[in-house]
Design goal:
Elements: H1 3-16, E1 23-24, E2 27-28, H2 30-41, H3 52-75, E3 86-90, E4 95-98, E5 101-104, H4 108-116, E6 121-125, E7 138-140, H5 142-155, H6 166-175, H7 185-209, E8 213-217, H8 222-233, E9 238-241, E10 270-273, H9 276-283, E11 291-294, H10 298-302, H11 309-322, E12 329-335, H12 343-350, E13 356-362, H13 370-377, E14 383-385, H14 394-400, E15 403-406, H15 411-417, E16 422-424, H16 427-432, H17 434-438, E17 442-444, H18 448-457, H19 472-486
Parallel strand pairs: 3-6, 3-8, 6-7, 8-9, 9-10, 10-11, 12-13, 12-15, 13-14, 15-16, 16-17
Antiparallel strand pairs: 1-2, 4-5
Helix pairs in contact: 1-2, 5-7, 7-8, 11-14, 12-18
């Protein structure tokens, strides 16, 4: 189901059922249920890649080995203190390698700006990817969470939870023929128990660190809602950092129809967004308690500076590695998680001349699908790179490409800002990026012939000026105001 349809159903629920009153042990649960409903309706990659045994091996055998290796290395590095001004909670997905060190491209630029102001910062990294060494000090906490979660389930008695009026929601879903077991009252209560576990997990750590604010990447996850609730109970402002497309189709950032007067205590206090378009969307539904900071995309802006030494050296290394100078066209194909809509693009690769070169880059969460993509594409005349592209900064690939193609990846936004046109092959992709479509930086096509024609005629365009962003001082001022108000 497409995002627009998903949001329409969610809004229908909000308009007909008093979801804003759902509360369990002091926690407003509708934002969490909204997230679960979206996950149920939207076709995700987890429903396509079904090798559970591989995931278990990757996470708990190979992953544990990498984790212990990382911990061993950190023993010989300077230890962080028990206190910090700002804590970052990073999901480990958006990362780039520069000069043998890994840089978290969404959170590290913000951290860097704050540290230049004399603030002490630290980062927690979740997920099962362990990138070491890193630019800034951090701690991988995923296995600590997993172990404590297992022990809690083993030793503690299960909470009996209830959601008054939830039967109306189940009835609505069944009437629409979209009911899924994951949305049963029993499963939602189980999920809420997990959120409460993460609340307790983070609460203990926050009491030691005592940060003035917590920054999180992608707040909408089970642990993310727990982190938000822990911060609310400790009167610590929580800032969600934009990671990609938001706009009017993203269910976690748009079109909440019923927001309580005091707000949901499972939503961030501050949304750190890139531009005016995202600010306007969140402003259209938020209450007065939620603040918005237009900070821009710092890492992206770095790649628009042709004189930047890091940018120059990274680009030169990629050009040499793939001998790009011998190709007349370089095409970037960003594979959207979930797939299923890129058959036209695969056929275009198969019919490309030998003078063209393709970068086939998977989403960082789905790099394990590269073998499947190589099998689908098969032998081709053109140049092509699929493996090991995730660690290469996406902006470096954009900077070296003549055109970008995808079914609906948000890389469309960055490409337009860097003067590179995009081709999308789905109506949903076209609807996602109305601004780029109106600016003629986005082409919509449904045939292989048109794809090849557009690639052949593609030309980079001059880059416009950056959107004006608010300064770091403004962000600190907003945080300090909320912190002082709560404390």
């Amino acid at each position: 189901m497409e995002s627009k349809q998903v949001l329409s159903i969610i809004n229908e629920v909000e308009n007909s059922i008093p979801v804003q009153t759902w509360n369990i042990e002091g926690m407003d649960i509708w934002p969490y249920v909204r997230f679960k409903l979206r996950s149920s309706l939207f076709v995700s990659e987890s429903r396509i890649v079904k090798n559970k045994y591989y995931n278990l091996l990757y996470r708990y055998v190979l992953g544990m080995f990498r984790y212990l290796l990382t911990v061993f290395r950190q023993v010989f590095r300077s230890k962080h203190s028990d206190r910090c001004d700002y804590l970052f909670v990073e999901n480990g997905v958006h990362v780039a390698k520069h000069k043998d060190s890994f840089y978290y491209v969404r959170t590290d630029p913000v951290r860097e700006k704050l540290e230049k102001k004399g603030m002490k910062c630290f980062t927690y990294v979740t997920g099962y990817k362990f990138n070491s060494p890193s630019f800034f000090s951090n701690e991988h906490i995923q296995y600590a969470m997993d172990i404590k979660y297992f022990l809690t389930k083993l030793l503690k008695k299960k909470r009996n939870l209830n959601i008054e009026g939830y039967e109306l929601f189940e009835k609505f879903l069944k009437k629409k023929d979209i009911y899924d077991k994951s949305l049963s009252k029993e499963n939602i209560c189980k999920g809420v128990r997990d959120v409460l576990f993460y609340r307790d997990f983070f609460k203990k750590r926050l009491l030691k660190l005592k940060p003035k604010a917590v920054f999180v990447l992608c707040y909408y996850s089970t642990y993310g809602y727990g982190l938000i609730k822990a911060c609310k109970e400790l009167n610590i402002p929580l800032v969600d950092i934009q990671h990609g497309i938001q706009g009017d189709h993203h269910t976690s950032y748009s079109s909440f129809k019923k927001v309580p007067k005091n707000g949901y205590n499972t939503l961030p206090d501050i949304f750190y967004v890139w531009d005016e378009e995202d600010r306007k969307e969140i402003s259209s539904w938020k209450n007065d308690a939620i603040k918005i900071f237009k900070g821009g995309n710092d890492y992206f802006n770095m790649w628009k500076q042709s004189g930047n030494e890091l940018v120059k050296s990274t680009k030169e290394g990629i050009q040499e590695r793939y001998s790009l100078s011998k190709y007349s066209k370089v095409i970037l194909f960003t594979v959207y998680p979930g797939g299923g809509h890129d058959d036209l693009i695969v056929k275009a690769i198969q019919n490309s001349p030998k003078e063209w070169f393709w970068f086939v880059r998977h989403h960082p969460k789905s790099n394990t699908r590269s073998e499947n993509m190589k099998e689908r594409i098969g032998e081709v005349k053109c140049g092509i790179a699929i493996d090991d592209l995730v660690s290469i900064p996406i902006f470096a690939l954009i900077a070296l490409s003549d055109i970008h193609i995808t079914d609906s990846s948000s890389t469309v936004i960055e490409c337009a800002e860097m003067g590179v046109s995009s081709i999308v092959t789905t109506k949903e992709g076209r609807d996602f990026y109305k601004t780029q479509y109106e600016q003629k930086m986005l082409l919509f096509t449904t045939s292989v012939e048109e794809i090849l024609k557009n690639i052949k005629e593609s030309k980079r365009k001059s880059v416009g000026e950056d959107n004006e962003s608010e300064g770091t001082e403004k962000l600190i001022e907003i945080i300090d105001h909320i912190y002082a108000h709560h404390n």
